[in-house]
Amino acid sequence: MVDIALGTALAAIGAGIAVGFAGLGSGLGQGMAAAGSVGAVAEDPDMFAQGILFTALPETQAIYGFLIAILLMVFGGILGGETALPVEVGLVAIGAGAAIGFAGLGSGMGQGMAAASSVGAVVEDPDMFSQGILFTALPETQAIYGFLIAILLMVFGGILGA
Amino acid sequence: MADSISAIVTSMGFSSIESFIGLLLLAGFIIGAIVVIVTIKPVFEMFPYAYPNARVRARIGRLITQKQFSEILESENLEEVKNYLRGFPEYSKYVDKYPLEKALDIQMAETHDLIARIAPGGIKDVFRVLLKKWDISNIKTLITAKEAGLNPEKTAELLIPFGEISDVVEKLVEVKSVTEVIIGLEGTEYSQILEDALTDYEEKGMVLPLEAALDKYYLENLLKAVSDPSDANTTLLHPYIGTQVDASNLKIILRAKADGLKYDDISPYMISKGYQIRDWKLKDLMESEDVSGVISALEGTDYSVIMVDALAEYNKTGSIAPFEAALSGYIQKTAKTLSLKKPFGIGPMIGFLSRKEVEIKNLKVIVRGKRESGFPVSVIKEMLI
Fold first, then answer.
1. CB B106 within 8 A of CB B98
2. B50 close to A (CB below 8 A)
3. ipTM of this complex prediction, to 2 decimal places
4. Helix %, strand %, coil % of chain B (to 5)
5. What is the value of pTM for the model shown?
């Protein structure tokens, strides 16, 4: 059995929360946007490019979660390193994972709903494209907040650049 | 730092920091699960509507605008109307294949068929019942055609190729009489209803009892389909369908009272358990002496205000058309209000169906007007909803 320090194990949990919850939100949001886009393309094949664009937007939350998880695994000593994190730093890692995980969950689902609705609006009236993109981009901010806080926690909590 | 955390953990009664972290993770897991369930639940309610609503909104975007209606109104003749409709993908595939009014009916039936196919599970049944309208319309056409002695070719031309029993109906164009049509429908849900009304038809010598029995069956089924709502979306369907049933009852009563008919003549055609007009109110309305009495008896319902406005016009012309127009307007208004209530649910579908029905009705008015050479545009305009 691999010998892992408790702090490192906690960082692994943090990585799981980061990618798991952010991926869940992103997946649900993207699924909803994709369902709307398929409906739009079924009625108007010219909607394919716009549909792809709106469906791709809720992908970002999963990317943020994935990045934080990779950083936690690299700097937490899970991927190749020899760092054994202290318990309190492990707790900080869980905080960083939860920050992007939950923010990504809410942001991804919100963006998915906005994207599905925007696809409907654009297929109804093509002039709605730019407004649709703008409204769909707004729920991205919550994920950015979560991502920033996760990075700050890692920097000042002793995970990055410790 | 680690020592102080250990001291806090020990003072809380935990034997080691590991057991404290274990408990912390368990609490975090439970909180996380609650957050996920609470957050995801509404998304799962919206999810099934994403695809159908996008398709419906695409079609909303292709509905004929006011400006386009004005242009159609300016057409010189039916051929120009046809030409204009060729620019709409929904109509272009039918206008050259069928007579114009039939092409419009087919487009409406196709819309009902589409909604019944793409509607999510919970509301599918209601839209399937709506689609039965075309089976009933075809059966009525068959009955009327056989009563009028039309040949199979002429009868087939009048049928709308949509509905659940369209194959059965197509075969029945060959039969000779109304009774044979009813026998031919054996095995379908309409057989018993028509058999029950057959005696009345034979006694009176007119098809009205058969048509009324079919209409009643259709509306009762619609009401039954929405009477037991399972969620917020199905709950919205009740006022939409219920208002249509109320309007249907009111139109029959007003027509009957304008012709001086009494309670016993009207009651067989009534659909009970409407939306705002419950059974006791329906009885009051049927027992009214005349049209004014019906309008007075409506007090306390939303229909009262709109009908009072139409009463003055009725008193001037003696036609119940203003009441019918007021009721149609009220149905559209109700549908519009409901369509805005659930934008991620059933709302767009209700809004689209209602607007499509108005579009087809208005196009039919224009087609009929343009068929009469020299019919004034201003008169057609007044007849539009």
1. yes
2. yes
3. 0.82
4. 80, 0, 20
5. 0.83
